[in-house]
Specification:
With 106 residues, the chain is mainly α. It has one domain. The protein has four helices and no strands. Helix 1 packs across helix 3 and helix 3 packs antiparallel against helix 4. 28% of the residues are buried. The model has no long low-confidence stretch (mean pLDDT 95).
């Protein structure tokens, strides 16, 4: 169950990052509200995952899901650059997440 909580936390991290971008510096109400709720949910699910997962594993995977997810949303939704070096960097982060999962208990 901890891994499910961790994935939910990571997805919510992507949601709040995107909502923060859409809030235009906290000047738009709904994106700001979505950001605040998803941020609280993300941290809450991370805390639930950390009940059984090691700190280093949980935090690394949480931030990695957020980083790669925000990168993908930036490309797919916001039209950001998808250069070979940026894709390689995201792939390396993703491979690190897989290795962290495979080497962690739980």
């Amino acid at each position: 169950m901890a891994w499910i909580f961790l994935v939910i936390a990571g997805v919510l991290e992507v949601v709040w990052a995107y909502a923060m971008k859409q809030s235009d510096g906290f000047t738009r109400f709904w994106p700001t509200a979505i950001m605040a709720v998803s941020m609280a949910g993300s941290v809450g699910f991370l805390a639930l995952a950390m009940r059984t997962l090691p700190l280093g594993t949980a935090y690394t995977i949480w931030t990695g899901i957020g980083a790669v997810g925000a990168f993908l949303v930036g490309i797919a939704v916001l039209g950001e650059q998808a250069s070979a070096s940026r894709i390689l960097a995201a792939g390396l982060i993703g491979s690190g997440l897989v290795l962290m999962k495979l080497s962690s208990p739980g």
